[in-house]
Write a structure and sequence with these properties.
Length: 62
């Protein structure tokens, strides 16, 4: 795992949104995996993506 990225790049290749099954965008500054399709951002804690809808943050639709 890269110290700068905070998450294993190979893991990013296989993870998908649990709701839409579409790819996720990694937001390095916010330490989140973003699902544009679902309008959710999943947190990454200590390098581990938390892929639970209940833990996700809703994206602003503005």
């Amino acid at each position: 795992m890269s110290e700068k990225s905070g998450i294993d790049p190979k893991l990013l290749e296989i993870l998908v949104c649990p709701l839409t099954k579409q790819t996720l965008r990694y937001d390095r500054l916010a330490q989140e995996l973003v699902s544009e399709a679902a309008g959710l951002a999943f947190p990454i804690r200590d390098g581990v993506p938390i892929m639970l809808v209940d833990e996700a943050r809703r994206l602003n639709t503005d």
